[in-house]
Amino acid sequence: MIYILIPLFIVILIPIVYILFLIIFEYKPGVIEDAIIINSSSKKLPNEFSVTTLNVGYCSLDKDNDFFFEGGKNAKAISEEKVVANLEGNSKIIKELNSDFYLIQEIDEKGSRSYNVNQLEHIISKYDNYSSSFAYNYRLKYMWYPLYKPMGSAYSGLLTLSKFNILSSTRFKLNGDETFPRRLFFLKRCMVVNTLKTEDNKDLYMINIHLSAYDKNGEIRKQQVKFLIEYLNELYDEDKNYIIIGGDWNHLLPKEIYKDVMPEWVNLLPEELYQDKFRLVYDKTVNTVRSEDTPYIKGKNFETVIDGFLVSPNVETVDVKTVDYEFEYTDHNPVKATFRLK
User: How is residue 227 annotated by DSSP?
Assistant: First the structure.
C-alpha cells in the first residue's frame, strides 16, 4: 500500500512546491518606480518629430510561429537561430523607418522562451545615438506550461528610444490584477512616462504602454483605460505640456470594423476614450497585428488594428502610416506617425 501512496504523494507535492516557488519569486513592482535610463542624448527636441510604436514579440513570434494562448502549439521561439534572425529583422525595421522616437514592447532582456538572447542589449548598443529608457513588465522565473514544451523563463519590458534628451522616466503600474494563481504567470502591466523639454520650455510626456490581453471580457483592460483617462486629464495642461501615448493597446482602435468576429484577445475600447478630448491616431488601412492560432498565412489569420497613439489636443498629427512587413519578424506591424507641437 505504501508503495502506491508514495508516487501519489509526489504527484500532488510537485505542483504545490511549484506554486510556492512562483509565490516566493513573484515580481511585485511598486505603484510608481523610476525606470532605467540607459543612454542619454543632449539634442534638443524640435516642434515636429516622428514616433514609431512596435511590439517585437520577444523576437520569437515571427510568421512561422504560433502561440498556445490563442490555440496554437508553441509558447517559445522555434529556435535560437530564429530569435537572432528576428532580432536582426526588427533592428532593420528600426533603421529603415529612421524615426526620432521608438516605443517598443515585449523586448526580452533574457529568458529561456527566447533562448536567452539579450534583445535589449543588442538594440540599445546598436542605436547608442538614442537616449533610451527601460522598465520591466514581466519577470517570471519559470512557466512550466505547456507541459510538452514549457515556455520557461521571461525577463521582458518596454523600451523607449529617443534622439533627444530624456530628463526622467517613470514606471506607473496600471490598475487591474489577474486573480490568483493566474497573476503568477501573467505580465505586470504598466506604462512608462518619459519626460523631455521642448524648445519653448514645456514638457513633452512620451508614454510607452502595453495593455492587458486574455483577460475575460476585457474587464482588466477597462480598469486600465479608466486609470489612463483619469491620469491624462489630471496631467494635461495646455500651457505647460504635451502628451503622446503609443503602444500595443490590445483593443480595436477603429471601432467600426471587425466587431462581430473579434477573438477574445481583442476588445472594444470603452466609449469614454472616444469621447475624451484626447485623440486616437492610427492607420486603419493596414492591419497591425495577426492572430497566432496558426503560423501566418496571408488571408487565413485574423488581422486587425490594435497599435497606435493617443495624443493631447495641442498635438497635431501630420501623418500616420502602418508599414506592412507581413509579420515577417514579429506578430505586429510598426506604426509610424509624425507629430507637430502646436
Answer: H
Distance in angstroms (rounded) separating the CA atoms of residues 130 and 91: 14
pLDDT tens digits for 192-242? 999 999 988 999 999 999 999 988 878 899 999 999 999 999 999 999 999
| DSSP letters spanning 45-58 | B-SEEEEEEEE-GG
How many CB atoms are located within 10 Å of the residue 73 CB?
A: 13
166 and 36 in contact (C-beta within 8 Å)?
no
**φ, ψ (nearest 5 deg) of residue 124:** -70, -30
CA distance 200 to 195: 14
CB atoms within 10 A of CB 183: 13
Superfamily of domain 31-341: Endonuclease/exonuclease/phosphatase (3.60.10.10)
| CB 232, CB 243: distance < 8 Å | yes
State the cell numbers at 244: 503622446
Beta bridge mates, 259: none
CA–CA gap between residue 325 and residue 262 (Å, rounded): 22
Could you tell me the residue ranges of all domains in the chain? 31-341
pTM: 0.94
All three cell numbers of 69, joined, read 494562448
SS3 at position 204? strand
